[in-house]
Write a structure and sequence with these properties.
The chain is α+β, with helices and mostly antiparallel strands. About 25% of the residues lie in helices and about 30% in strands. It has 4 helices and 10 strands. The strands form 3 sheets. A 6-stranded mixed β-sheet has the order 8-6-9-2-1-10. The two termini are about 15 Å apart.
C-alpha cells in the first residue's frame, strides 16, 4: 500500500509532547547513512549540526515557558536544565522520498543527537542519559528524521499550546508498519 502516492507530502517541521511522557521533533532532512557520514568532511558535519540546532532552538523557544530559557544569543539557545529527569529512550523514525531498500543498522543520527544535547534537552548522549537508541523506518514518501524521546518529562516546562499527541498517532502518520 502506497500511503501517499496521489498526494506527495512536503518536508515539514513538527513537534510536541507525547502523552505527557515524552517529546518528539520531526526535521525535514534525509537520514544520513554511515557510508555517507564517514565520507563527510568535518566542516560539513559541523554545518549540518548547526542547521539542526538552529531549527531545534526555534522549536524550543516556541514550546517552553519563558522562565525555562536561560539565554538565547548568537550561539543559540541555552535552557535552564534538561527536559527529562533521568535517562530516556530514543526512537528515530526515518522516512525517505525514494522507496529504496535500506539497511536499518546503517543509519546514524549523531549530528541531530549532538544538536539535542547542545540545546540542553538532555544532559548528554552517553549511557547515563540515553538508556536505549533504536532506528525504524516509516513509509511516508518524504525525507524526514523524527526523534521520539520518552522518559520522565518535565511537562510543567512546556506551554499549554504545545500539542500533546498519542505515540501511535505519530507512528501511524509516519507510516510505521507494526
Amino acid at each position: 500500500m502506497d500511503l501517499n502516492a496521489d498526494f506527495p507530502i512536503l518536508p515539514h517541521i513538527a513537534y510536541g509532547t507525547i502523552e505527557n511522557m515524552g517529546f518528539y521533533i520531526t526535521l525535514p532532512f534525509r537520514g544520513i547513512s554511515l557510508n555517507q557520514y564517514k565520507k563527510l568532511h568535518h566542516g560539513r558535519v559541523k554545518s549540518l549540526r548547526s542547521q539542526y540546532k538552529s531549527i531545534i532552538d526555534l522549536i524550543m523557544v516556541a514550546s517552553l515557558k519563558k522562565n525555562y530559557i536561560k539565554d538565547f544569543n548568537e550561539n543559540g539557545l541555552i535552557l535552564n536544565g534538561p527536559l527529562f529527569d533521568g535517562s530516556i529512550d530514543i526512537t528515530w523514525v526515518l522516512t525517505f522520498l525514494l522507496s529504496n531498500t535500506r539497511d536499518v543498522s546503517n543509519y546514524t543520527q549523531k549530528t541531530v543527537l549532538d544538536s539535542i544535547v547542545s540545546v540542553g534537552i538532555i544532559e548528554d548522549d552517553n549511557e547515563k542519559f540515553v538508556f536505549s537508541d533504536k532506528t525504524i523506518f516509516g513509509h511516508k514518501k518524504v525525507d524526514s528524521i523524527t526523534c521520539i524521546m520518552t522518559g520522565k518529562l518535565y511537562k510543567q516546562k512546556f506551554l499549554v499550546s504545545v500539542p500533546d499527541v498519542k505515540l501511535n498517532n505519530i507512528l501511524d502518520y509516519l507510516g510505521v508498519v507494526k
